[in-house]
Specification:
Length: 327
């Protein structure tokens, strides 16, 4: 099941819960498995979003977020530290593909184009047995299709459709969500600032449950209670549908060389997106020396001593309140 949910877009942990529910109790289990996995976190995030909108300017709240945001950067760095060697160890070609995806992402190519382009290039390289002209041509051909669109006003329909699209195309770790959120909501639609995006990710990280409940927080900021509901349904709905559709294809997907090659390419591109967007968001999180110290200590504790991210976030929140108060 884990192998299959890694082959389809969406939040892998949530889709695994949906898959288990489906296997154990059919369609009702599918709904209950996913719904019960998502609901507690979504409710907690909604409550925190209400407090953020209502009390976000209170110094104590600002201090908590000031401390948590650098740790979010450290947590993503730790994820990259552990995942990158596993993703590129199969061949030097995958490492080169990852660097190419980094360059494309830094040039503001749409994240979906980067992911699909890398996946297709990996399949072509696997089929032809070489990693030169053809594969790169396919990759750059996909990159060339990227383009900016005009900003749109925030409406409940637009909000739902934006998160529905993101939920249908995000591959890899939940932190790849950062790249899609930044590309769509900050750069293209201008619905959020980078600071608000980091605050949303920080809230998603500090609560239990899937990181994708960051969408709940953003939905509340942009559209109140209805916005939170529609953003949550939008980003998680594709996972329910994809699990239902992919279940009969489990055995075939496991045996398919093409599926494996596509996933290899998508994995390295996802890590590239994570690296680039973390660098970009770090500018909004590491605003002074205390914030840099919090991020550095957090990364060391995570990588060297494997400290639980839960305790780290709690400690960072306390350090943030103290540092903000001293300032």
């Amino acid at each position: 099941m884990l192998g299959v949910v890694n082959l389809i877009p969406g939040p892998s942990s949530t889709e695994l819960a949906i898959f288990i529910g489906y296997e154990e109790a059919g369609w009702l289990g599918l709904v209950l498995g996913g719904g019960c996995f998502i609901l507690p976190a979504a409710l907690m995030v909604t409550a925190l979003a209400w407090a953020y909108v209502r009390f976000g300017t209170i110094p104590q709240i600002e201090g908590i977020l000031y401390g948590i945001k650098p740790v979010v950067i450290a947590i993503v760095v730790q994820a990259l530290w552990g995942l990158t060697p596993k993703a590129v160890k199969k061949s030097l070609w995958l490492g080169a593909l990852g660097l190419l995806a980094c360059a494309a992402s830094a040039l503001d190519v749409d994240p979906l184009v980067v992911l699909v382009g890398a996946g297709v290039a990996s399949v072509v390289q696997r089929r032809l047995g070489k990693g030169d002209g053809t594969a790169r041509a396919v990759l750059f051909g996909g990159f060339a299709g990227a383009g900016a669109t005009a900003a749109a006003p925030v409406t409940l329909v637009a909000l739902f459709l934006s998160f529905l699209k993101i939920g249908a195309v995000v591959f890899g770790s939940g932190y790849v969500l950062l790249a899609f959120l930044r590309a769509d909501l900050v750069d293209r639609l201008h619905w959020l600032t980078e600071r608000q995006l980091l605050d949303a990710v920080a809230i998603g990280q500090v609560t239990p449950g899937p990181v994708f409940t960051t969408a709940t927080f953003i939905g509340y900021i942009l559209g109140g209670g209805y916005g939170a509901l529609l953003a949550t349904v939008g980003i998680f709905l594709p996972g329910f549908l994809l699990v239902a559709v992919s279940r009969p294809l489990v055995a075939r997907a496991r045996r398919s060389p093409a599926a494996g090659a596509f996933l290899d390419g998508v994995n390295v591109a996802a890590l590239a997106l994570m690296a680039v967007v973390t660098t970009q968001l770090a500018r909004a999180a590491l605003v002074d020396i205390p914030a840099m110290l919090i991020a550095t200590v957090g990364a060391l504790l995570l990588i060297r001593w494997k400290v639980s991210s839960t305790w780290l976030v709690a400690g960072a929140a306390l350090a943030g309140v103290v540092a903000h108060g001293l300032r």
